[in-house]
Amino acid sequence: MLDTMLPDNIHSAEASSSSTVVPPSLQMQMLHQAQDESAAAATAALTQDDDESISTESVSLHQATPHKVQSLDLDSISMFPSLGSSSSRPAAAATTWGAGPSSRVKSAAGKLGAVGDQRRSPAAAQAQATQAPRVNASGNIHERMQIPSVQMPVLGKTTVGDVCRRVMISSGARIESSTSQASGTTTFVITGKPEAVAKARRDLRSSFAKKETVQYAVPSSARPHLLGAKGRTLIAIQTKTGVQITVPPRTKEQQETSLEPANANDDDLDVEEEMVDVAIEGDVESIKAAKEEIDQIVSKACRINYRLTTVPAAYYPFIAGARNVHIQAIQSQTNTRINMPFHVSSQDEDEEDEKDTAIVIQGDRKNIRKAIELIETNFSEIERTTRTMTINIPKRQHRFLVGAKGVHINEIHSATGCSIEIPPVDSTSNEIVVRGPESELVPALTLIMEKANSSQVESVDVTSVHKPVAGHSKVDHARHVTKYLSARNKLRKIEQEHDDVQISVPRTEGQNAVSIEIVAKTRSQVEAARAKILEAVKTLTPALFDVVQVEPLLHRHIVGRKGQNINRIREAHSVEVIVPDSNSDSSEIVLVYESKDGSDLTDVAKIRTALEVVKQEVDKLAHDATDFATRVLSVPARLHRNIIGPKGSTLNAIMGLEPTTSVRLGLPRAGSADAVKKAGVPALTEDSIVIKGPKDDVERVAKDILAVAEEAKHQQIMSSYTVTFDIPATASPHVIGKGGANINKLTEQLQVKFDLNDKAPAGDDKKKKSGNETMEVTIQGVKKSVETAKETILKMVEQIADATVAKLDIPVEHYSALIGIKGRYVRRLEEKYGVRVQFPKATTDDDEETPKSFVIVSGGKKGVQGAKEELLELLDYEKENNNTLEMVIEPKMLPHIVGRSGAKINEIQEASQTRIDIRRSSENDVKPEVRLIINGSKTGIKTAQKLVNEIVEAQKSQVEELVEVNNKYHKILIGQGGSTLREIIAKAGGPSEMSAQAGLVKFQSNNNAVLLKGDKTVVEKIKNEMLAMVAEQDSWTTMVINIPAAQHRQVIGPQFSHVKEIENRHNVRIQFPNNKNKKEGDAAESGANDRVTIKGLRDNCEKAKADLEAKIKVTASRSFSIPKRHRQAVFGDGVWKIRNEFNVVVVLPKDGGRAGASKRIDADEDNVTHGITDGLSWELYDLSGPAEGADEPMYTVQLQGSDAACEAVEKHLTALLEKARASTHVLKIRVPTTYHGLIIGSGGNHIKQIEIESSTTAKISRGDELITITGPKEGIEKAKAAIIRVVNNSDKRA
């Protein structure tokens, strides 16, 4: 064995095994690393005295690679120092949460992403140090991780190999490492199970990568989402990324109030979200991964709701579009969720405000602004191009214009682009408003008339059915009747009795009549349903009704738990209690007397007595429920939002999880009980807060609400300090920062608000041209914070005095690579050097100062110089490595190049370190082709081109050939389980994998053809071998020998081992009869069961016959007799079990014992005892019968096998016979199937214990209640008692 020493820059984690073969992935990695080293350096390194070893193959690969120019480390802090002060505490990372709507101070989040580019520069390669793992067939993954030299600590005496070995032992993963002498980057290749690789990766970073701590600002409202229940979310992030995260505790102010509104308006979009700094400790890559995890959580947690009220509801259908296609497009563009109310009602603006028809937009502030802009733009255009027309249609036909869930309105809108507006339900107007393009109004009217006349409508005027009664309002009585019919499902029952009939009760608030409407397709259906309704209404006279007034908050006490109170009243007094819906604020409870048989509906005195008794009982229930109280607070309406809190959280916390009080803020709803002016109660205003409930709870809630209001007032006063000053307009971009970064940072740290406005008048061109224009800055907040913010801005203005601009001549084809995906690389340069980098967007003929290839870098002199140098270095790198080659291949070659699920092309890309794009020609091309665009370094492109050409050449040598083989030989060529075919393919030099073999030879089931497909040489050999076997088969003969069926298993051997050995030795085929489906003991067929067929050449058959006969053993035969009455008990389970266990054949009598079979156990009622114990019925059958005598019919079987085996079977059968004789009784007991699991027990342990203790046999029927127990009478009684005990114990526990 040859041991070769390693260079210093390559470390083997398995030094103890000098003969270990380096995997291909590491070999390829070493090839790339060796490009950075000279041959002389490699030779010198091999002579160093190192105790770590590697295989000879690896070293030879290392020596053979050419020298390459050293790559540039763009992340080196020493080469590119960052600007700014060297504060020991890192600055909080700039975030975009809580950004205001100002066009000058807006977040750049979302514009620039963090997705990597496959064409990476060295800096980008280090930024993505950990590559995505590759999974092999065994489930192991391979992952590569790189750590730059600037992040590697000084290890002292400990080597990288020592650390790798320690991590391998703790994680169970395999680790191989190497270090580039040129760049100093250390690469680790980790192999193992996913969990082992993850642990090894964390341990390696913990051991090598330098630690740092950064402050990352997140919204205060996202803190609970970041922590999770009991800190589980935070722990999961730390475990996944390997960092330590410290979340500061809540302050007192943060615990009591929140600045995030549940429903935002224009002012709320300017409110800055309170931020907290989260400390993240770890290496660079781990911190980056942790930030991504935090960003995902925050993006879901920090979303607000904005209510847009500037668009009239009449235009909602046009803005939404047919089936909401327009609004869905806006949602997709802005990444928001928009809820637009379904609008069909034409009403006044005051009524619209009361109904709250606002459009609700959910998302972050920037996206909400974008969505508002799109909606308002669409509204302006729609308002300009639409016209209106009115038409009168009877009120009762309006519903047909709407349809189920507005389907008819959508149909009209889709067909004509017009919307219709229908008067509210409580309006008496018949006027329909049609709105849309002028050319489509007439077609829309045609569709409207078709929909309106599509069904028959009739109504029952409930108000006019009964004559007025003193003390009872006709309208009130009619409303009570409809409530009763609806509550008792009387109307629904009539609908079910008449097909295609719909019955509804229109709203009656403010109406002088109450009606029930019937809709159907035909007049006959309407009339039949109307007659039924009218009959039901006539029976409900005013004498049957009464009303009791109870505060709505107490209605649930009247109903009782699961309706037990009203159910009890119904049963005791025949009175139905109808309580208003829980969403209603009505205090009216309707009482209806209903007779069970209808015989006493004319007894007015009896009815009146029952209603009075129920009224008293309802009053008593309300009085016993609580000492109800009402309190009205006066709190300025501007503070109501603070009392409600985000999504109602503050108010919910005050009221409790199970509130016993109700709180209403502002003016009451029109028509509600609180809207009625009551004596001694002050008039309610928009500042009013009405609290109702138990007296103590009302006082507690009122106290908490006043405390929250006082705290909100204090916060507003503290944040009212304002200062205004001017700065040069030329300095404003630097003060604001990229995407508002600087202003946002000050806002987050100091909790202040900024307002920036141009001070020069719009028409003052002279002042603008002079360059002396200024910008007015207004800062509002706490005084100390405002002064600090002003001082910071003025210092920034002083620091930009040395600003400069540099122009770089860069070819346009390199723009995308230098900018990076979504501006990633440019953003890094701007943040690192504090400059602004602008790439030209378009080319104009008259723009001579800034040509298309000029890139502008502006900022401080030092930062501009650093950014310029780095951009030019990146340009040089791109010119060297960003090369492209185009290959044209035939379309049929593409699947072989791509491979299954892209495995092959991924392998080519990894081996060559290139990117391959596939472009297909269009279907209309005369000559279809596929182009492969290969992008990468020159060496990588050559490698990829070579690998692709190898695949193409290999596929060109593939052939297809049909071989004529009679299908009677197909089975022989395939062999048992495909064994013969696999031997033929292996002999011809074909693949050994079964998946590859399956596509090589295909037998045609419907003809004599065999399709061969593969390499030309292999196909020819397989063909010749098959034809030779077929020719040999024509000279085969068939021989039959008799082998007792009892010895077939012994002759065949375990898993056909004996038979296969004889077949292979003599080239024959041996077929044993299939006896599984034949009843053993059938004398007529016993000879056929013994026949074994041998096929092959005659001489070979004779030799195989001799080998088979040599394995036959001499067997004995003896008879065994039992009383015929016990035949079923002894042989009822069949005789195959005996054959398999004892290797003895049991031959049953020819009649099978069918003649003279014993009668059913329940045929003789004299031997049956019936009974019921603890609710379980049972029957006990006495099977003892007469004693056995000399004339007892016997049942005789033949046993064939060895003497010892036959004796063992006789003992076994005798034991079964004795057990059958002892089983004198049978018990059939019926137990509900729900108890069967308890009786059986886990794994059948309980039923087995019962059988052992009682010496019985139990059989439980599947899916049936019957349990059958066989055994002696005493044992059966024990088993029955045990089963009944299980049932009783289960009932007690329940």
UniProtKB/TrEMBL annotation:
What the entry lists under Pfam families is as follows: KH_1, KH_11, KH_Vigilin
Q: Does the keyword RNA-binding apply?
A: yes
Region Disordered: start and end of each range? 1-67, 115-134, 247-268
The residue ranges flagged as biased composition, category Low complexity, are 36-47, 123-132
UniProt keyword list: Repeat, RNA-binding
Start and end residues of each K Homology domain: 139-209, 210-299, 300-380, 385-453, 479-538, 542-619, 627-710, 719-798, 802-876, 881-953, 957-1031, 1035-1113, 1223-1288
Q: Does the keyword Flavoprotein apply?
A: no
What CDD domains does UniProt report for this protein, alphabetically? KH-I (cd00105), KH-I_Vigilin_rpt4 (cd22408)
The GO terms describing molecular function are:
RNA binding
> Which organism's genome codes for this protein?
Podila minutissima
Q: Where is the composition biased (Polar residues)?
A: 14-32
- According to UniProt, the name of this protein is K Homology domain-containing protein
